[in-house]
Specification:
Elements: H1 4-23, E1 26-30, E2 33-38, H2 42-52, H3 54-71, H4 79-98, H5 105-132, H6 136-164, H7 166-169
Antiparallel strand pairs: 1-2
Length: 177
């Protein structure tokens, strides 16, 4: 059973992800297709996984993607991106929450590297190559460079939120140092 506070927190994280992804993002064309979105929309999804576990992170990811598409449709719906969004919440949730890792910068960076390589560089590049009929290797370099830039930023923001505002957001006891 999900507690009311957890459910409300998850809903807030869904809303933040939609706002960051759909309203405060920059689309960059790659290989003639709008294949690179720079935004902070993944941070609330990863935060849900870290705070509430991989299932909650996956649910927040799915709801954020579906809500964002319903409110602000860009192109056609592609279910691969919904899967990717779920994994953005599930992977950090599994790596940190489920394995009872402390919220150190090292653990957060490792979680963000693994998540980014699997989801953003791997799966999302595959989905874009299918969707836009572009070669995977044409899209890969710019997406990899973007992730190399974004991983430290995402890690720093997550670390700051989790360690400075732990009293406000209620960090589970097994994650505290």
């Amino acid at each position: 059973m999900i507690k009311t506070k957890t459910l409300v927190s998850m809903a807030l994280l869904v809303a933040l992800s939609v706002i960051f992804t759909r309203l405060f993002s920059v689309m960059v064309p790659v290989g003639g297709a709008m294949a690179l979105r720079l935004s902070f929309g993944e941070i609330p999804i990863a935060l849900a996984g870290i705070l509430f576990g991989p299932w909650a992170g996956a649910i927040v990811g799915v709801l954020a993607d579906l809500t964002g598409f319903a409110l602000f449709p860009i192109g056609t719906y592609f279910p691969g991106f919904t899967l990717s969004s779920a994994l953005v919440g599930a992977i950090p949730g599994w790596l940190i929450y489920s394995r009872r890792k402390e919220l150190t910068m090292k653990n957060i960076v490792i979680a963000m590297i693994i998540t980014s390589m699997i989801v953003s560089v791997g799966l999302n590049t595959l989905w874009l190559s299918i969707l836009y009929d572009k070669a995977f290797l044409v899209l890969l370099p710019s997406r990899l460079i973007a992730r190399i830039i974004l991983i430290p930023i995402y890690s720093f923001v997550l670390y700051t939120i989790l360690n400075r505002y732990h009293a406000v957001i209620g960090i589970p006891a097994h994650l505290r140092r």
